[in-house]
Write a structure and sequence with these properties.
- The complex is a heterodimer of chains A (326) and B (330).
- With 326 residues, chain A is α/β, with parallel strands linked by helices.
- Chain A is built from 12 helices and 15 strands.
- Chain A folds into 2 domains: 180 residues, Thiamin diphosphate (ThDP)-binding fold, Pyr/PP domains (Rossmann fold, 3-Layer(aba) Sandwich), CATH 3.40.50.970; 129 residues, Rossmann fold (3-Layer(aba) Sandwich), CATH 3.40.50.
- In chain A, strand 11, helix 8 and strand 12 form a beta-alpha-beta unit.
- With 330 residues, chain B is of the alpha/beta class.
- The longest helix of chain B has 26 residues.
- The chains are: A alpha/beta (326), B alpha/beta (330).
- Chains A and B meet through helix 3, helix 4 and helix 5 of A and helix 5 and helix 6 of B.
Chain lengths: 326, 330
C-alpha cells in the first residue's frame, strides 16, 4: 500500500471530504496559515476558497459557537483549535451547547460537528502551549472523543468524525505528524468506538492512546528481547470506549499498564483502571495496575525539565518490569 | 424601505395583538401554576416584554432562525411554537417540545425555525452567528435572529460575535431586550456604559435603541433590519428598552426582596405593550369591542386546552435514560 505521513493523511482527508460534500467547511485559527496547524490544511484555501476555508479572529468560544450554529443549519463544520490549551476558552460552547443539544431538546436536533484539537508540545513551549486535554472532553456526556495514533487512523477517524451526526472531539498530536504509514488513497472510515490490538502478546496488556501507542510498541520490542511478550492495545476512541476489547485482553494477560499522554489524576488511566476494578477480571489480576502518565504538574519550559516530564518507551518498559517483578 | 415609510397592514396588527395576548395569557397561567407548585421547573416569565418577540418575529419566515435564552416562552410562541408542547414541557412530560429533557429554559421546534434556547447567558449569540454563516455559505435567503438580555452584554462572546458577524457581513439580527436588570442587579450596576446600542459602533455595525414596549416601532425596526440582512446588508444590533413585570425567576415581582420599587413597576405597567396596541386598534376600528372579547375567550380556551393536554400527557420513561439512549444521535 502507498505510504504517506500522518500530516499528509489528515490533509488528504480534508481535501477529499470538502470536495465531495458541500455541507463541510473548516473554520478556526490559522487554517490558511502555512505553519499554524502544521501543514494539515495546505492547499485547501486555493482549492475551496475563503467561503469554506475560514480563518478566524482569535475568538475561540465564539468561533466554536458559530460552528455549532452552522451545524444546526444543515452544515457539517470542522472547527480547529491549533493548540488544545486554547480550547478552555471554548469549553462553554463545547460542553454546555454542542454536547447537550441532542439530549436537551429531546432528540429533535443534533450537532454534526468535528471539534479538532491539536496537541502541540515540546520545544520549550511551557504550560500554556503543551496540554493534552482528552480526559476533560471524555468526561462530558454527549461528546465522542477519538485519538488516532498512526496515519491510517488519522485519515479514517477524521472522515468518520465528520460523517458522524454528533459532536466528535478529534485529537491529534504534532509529535506524530511525520510518522509514515500505509494509507489508502480512496476515502474510508475507521469506526468510532473500536480499539485495535497493535501487537499480540500474552504476558501483559499495555493499553495506550495516541502518541503513547508508538512508545508502547517500541517498549514491547525492547521487552521482546528479554523474552517478555507484551500485548499493545490502541484504544483509538476514548468515548465510546471499546470495553470488550479491553476486558478480553486483560482477562488473557492478567496484567495491565495504561500509557496516556495526559495528567494522572482523573485521567484516562484512572477511568480504565476503574473499569477493570468494577469488572470480574479484577479478581484475576496478577499484579496491581500501573499508570504511565504525566505527573500532576504543568508542562515546563527548559528542555532538561521537559525530558523528565514527558513519558517515553523507557517508562513503559520500567512499568512492565515492575508489574512482572523482573 | 426605511422604517418611517413602513405601513403595517391591519391583518398584521391583529395577528400581532393576538400573539402578544397569547404570550401574556400563557405566562399568567404559568405563574399561577408555579405558585401552586404544579409546575416545578424554574420559569423566567416574559410578562411585560411581549412586544419585543412579537414585533420581531412577525417579520420572519418559517425557515428563518430564532435563538433564545432562559426567558424563552415569548420567543417560542411568537415564532410559532406549539403551545401544547410548551405547556407539556413545563410539566416535564414526554409530549413536551423537548420530551421533558429541557424544561422551561430549553425549548426548540426546528420545524418552525427554533433551533434551541440556552440558559447560559449569551450562549446562543454565537450560535446565531454560525447559522447566519451557514445561510451565507448556502446562499439561502434566510436570516438568523438572536434574543438576549442586557446582562448578556457583559459576556465576552457578545463582543466576539458582533465582531465576527460584522467582519463577515452575516445576515444576523442581534436583539437586546434591555429590561434594566441582570438577574437581581440593576444594569447600571453592571455596565460602565449602559448605552448598549452604541456598542455596535465599535464594530462598524449599525446599532439602534427603540421603545421595547411599542410593538409598532419594533415591527418597523425589525422589518427594516430583516429586509436589509436578507439583501446582504449585514447585521444590526437593536436595543429594545422594556421591563419584566415579574422577578428574574418565578411568579413574584422581587419587590418584597427589596430588589426594585413598586413605583418603578407601576410606571412600567402603565406602559403595558398590549393595552397600548389594543387602545389604538379599538380607536382605529381595526378591532371592535365584541371582537376583543372574542379574542380573549379564544386565547383563554387555547391556554386551557394546552394545560389539559399537558396534565393528561405521560411522563418520560426513566428506563430510557438509564441506558444512555438519547445522548447521541444514532
Amino acid at each position: 500500500m502507498r505510504k504517506i505521513s500522518y500530516v499528509q493523511a489528515i490533509n488528504e482527508a480534508l481535501h477529499q471530504v470538502i470536495e465531495r460534500d458541500k455541507q463541510i467547511f473548516i473554520i478556526g485559527q490559522g487554517v490558511t496559515s502555512p505553519w499554524y496547524v502544521g501543514t494539515t490544511t495546505v492547499g485547501l484555501i486555493d482549492r475551496f476558497g475563503q467561503e469554506r476555508i475560514i480563518d478566524t479572529p482569535v475568538s475561540e468560544n465564539t468561533v466554536t459557537g458559530a460552528a455549532i450554529g452552522a451545524a444546526l443549519a444543515e452544515m457539517r463544520p470542522i472547527v480547529v483549535h491549533p493548540r488544545m490549551d486554547f480550547m478552555y476558552y471554548a469549553l462553554d460552547q463545547i460542553a454546555n451547547h454542542a454536547a447537550t443539544w441532542h439530549y436537551m431538546f429531546g432528540g429533535q436536533l443534533s450537532v454534526p460537528l468535528t471539534i479538532w484539537g491539536i496537541i502541540n508540545r515540546g520545544g520549550e513551549q511551557a504550560a500554556q502551549h503543551s496540554q493534552a486535554l482528552q480526559a476533560i472532553f471524555t468526561h462530558i456526556p454527549g461528546l465522542k472523543v477519538v485519538m488516532p495514533s498512526n496515519p491510517y487512523d488519522a485519515k479514517g477517524l477524521l472522515v468518520a468524525s465528520i460523517k458522524d451526526d454528533n459532536p466528535v472531539v478529534y485529537i491529534d498530536d504534532r509529535w506524530l505528524y511525520e510518522y509514515v504509514g500505509d494509507v489508502p488513497e480512496e476515502i474510508y472510515t475507521v469506526p468510532i468506538g473500536k480499539g485495535v490490538i497493535r501487537r499480540k502478546g500474552k504476558d501483559v496488556t499495555v493499553v495506550a492512546i495516541s502518541y503513547m501507542v508508538n512508545e508502547a510498541i517500541k517498549a514491547s520490542e525492547v521487552l521482546e528481547k528479554e523474552g517478555l511478550n507484551v500485548e499493545v492495545l490502541d484504544l483509538r476512541s476514548l468515548k465510546p470506549l471499546d470495553e470488550n476489547l479491553l476486558l478480553d485482553s486483560v482477562k488473557k494477560t492478567g496484567r495491565l499498564i495504561i500509557a496516556d499522554g495526559g495528567w494522572k489524576t482523573c485521567g484516562i488511566g484512572a477511568e480504565i483502571s476503574a473499569k477493570i476494578a468494577e469488572s470480574n477480571i479484577f479478581k484475576e489480576l496478577k499484579a496491581p495496575i500501573i499508570r504511565v502518565s504525566l505527573l500532576d504538574v504543568p508542562a515546563p519550559a527548559s528542555s532538561v525539565l521537559e525530558k523528565a516530564y514527558y513519558r517515553k518507551a523507557e517508562d513503559i518498559v520500567s512499568a512492565v518490569r515492575k508489574n512482572l517483578e523482573v | 424601505m426605511k422604517r418611517t415609510d413602513i405601513n403595517i397592514p391591519s391583518e398584521v396588527l391583529r395577528r400581532v395583538y393576538e400573539t402578544m395576548l397569547r404570550v401574556r395569557k400563557i405566562e399568567e397561567r404559568v405563574a399561577e401554576l408555579v405558585s401552586k407548585k404544579e409546575i416545578k421547573c424554574p420559569v423566567h416569565l416574559y410578562i411585560g416584554q411581549e412586544a419585543v418577540a412579537t414585533g420581531v418575529c412577525a417579520n420572519l419566515q418559517r425557515d428563518d432562525y430564532v435563538f433564545s435564552t432562559h426567558r424563552s416562552h415569548g420567543h417560542y410562541i411568537a415564532k410559532g411554537g406549539n403551545i401544547k408542547s410548551l405547556m407539556a414541557e413545563l410539566y416535564g412530560k414526554e409530549t413536551g417540545c423537548s420530551r421533558g429533557r429541557g424544561g422551561s429554559m430549553h425549548l426548540a421546534s426546528p420545524e418552525v425555525g427554533l433551533p434551541g434556547s440556552s440558559a447560559i447567558v449569551a450562549g446562543t449569540i454565537p450560535l446565531a452567528v454560525g447559522a447566519a454563516l451557514a445561510f451565507s455559505i448556502q446562499k439561502r435567503n434566510a436570516v438568523s435572529v438572536v434574543f438576549f438580555g442586557d446582562g448578556a452584554v457583559n459576556e465576552g462572546t457578545f463582543y466576539e460575535s458582533l465582531n465576527f458577524a460584522s467582519l463577515k457581513k452575516l445576515p444576523v439580527i442581534f436583539i437586546c431586550e434591555n429590561n434594566l436588570y441582570s438577574t437581581h442587579m440593576p444594569i447600571s450596576d453592571c455596565l460602565a456604559n449602559t448605552d448598549i446600542y452604541k456598542k455596535a459602533d465599535i464594530f462598524n455595525m449599525p446599532g439602534i435603541r427603540i421603545d421595547g414596549n411599542g410593538v409598532v416601532e419594533i415591527y418597523k425596526a425589525a422589518k427594516e433590519a430583516v429586509d436589509n440582512a436578507r439583501k446582504g446588508g449585514g447585521p444590526i444590533l437593536i436595543e429594545c428598552m422594556t421591563y419584566r413585570w415579574r422577578g428574574h425567576v418565578g411568579p413574584n415581582d422581587d419587590i418584597d426582596k427589596g430588589l426594585r420599587s413598586q413605583e418603578e413597576l407601576d410606571c412600567w405597567m402603565n406602559r403595558c405593550p398590549i393595552k397600548r396596541l389594543e387602545k389604538n386598534l379599538l380607536k382605529d376600528g381595526i378591532l371592535s369591542e365584541s371582537e376583543r372579547i372574542q379574542v380573549y375567550k379564544e386565547i383563554e380556551k387555547e391556554v386551557e386546552d394546552a394545560l389539559l393536554f399537558a396534565k393528561e400527557s405521560p411522563y418520560p420513561d426513566p428506563n430510557e435514560d438509564k441506558f444512555y439512549n438519547g445522548v447521541f444521535k444514532s
